[in-house]
Design a protein that fits this description.
By secondary structure, the chain is mainly α. It has a domain of 102 residues: de novo design (two linked rop proteins), CATH 1.20.1440. The protein is built from 4 helices and no strands. The longest helix is centred in the middle third of the chain and has 26 residues. The relative contact order is 0.11.
Length: 163
């Protein structure tokens, strides 16, 4: 698991802990049965997030959303308490979807060799040489300076490293 995935999973678990406190019961504004059902789902979300399985955590988060909606429709939760739980669900969802997006980022495509236009992983054109031979080179002897004399140090030497 990458460090970014671990950090995101940790953030999701922390947010789930906040969500857990929002679903904890018995408390005013939340029926005991609804609190227990939602709290069990929150625990499952936290377990999936901690295990590095954000897709399963999002699926459980969807189930929690349905439980919240049903509890609100049945008057098992007050509007204020439902809003608190909803904010927590939204925070956890944002964290988990960020992890999913990071994991879904495709690998960069193979690069092309500048001189051939073929990809570097094409075995038909690979000569086994690992040096970069795609750049421009100087196959000539260079400029020997004026009248065959040594160069003057202005970049017009003999190309042999000694001006």
């Amino acid at each position: 698991m990458t460090s970014a995935l671990r950090a995101a999973a940790s953030a999701a678990v922390l947010t789930v802990a906040l969500l857990l406190s929002a679903c904890a019961g018995p408390a005013p504004g939340l029926a005991a049965t609804a609190a227990r059902d939602m709290q069990e789902t929150v625990v499952t979300i936290a377990q999936h997030a901690a295990a590095g399985d954000p897709a399963a955590a999002v699926a459980e988060l969807d189930a929690l959303q349905q439980r919240l909606d049903a509890a609100l429709a049945a008057d098992d939760i007050t509007a204020d308490r439902a809003a608190l739980v909803q904010r927590s669900i939204d925070l956890v969802r944002a964290d988990l979807e960020g992890v999913l997006a990071e994991n879904a980022t495709p690998a960069p495509p193979a690069t092309e060799d500048a001189g051939t236009g073929s990809t570097s992983d094409d075995p038909a054109t690979d000569d086994g040489d690992t040096t970069d031979d795609s750049g421009k080179g100087n196959s000539g002897n260079g400029n020997s300076g004026n009248d065959g004399k040594d160069g003057n140090g202005n970049g017009k030497g003999n190309g042999k490293g000694n001006d």
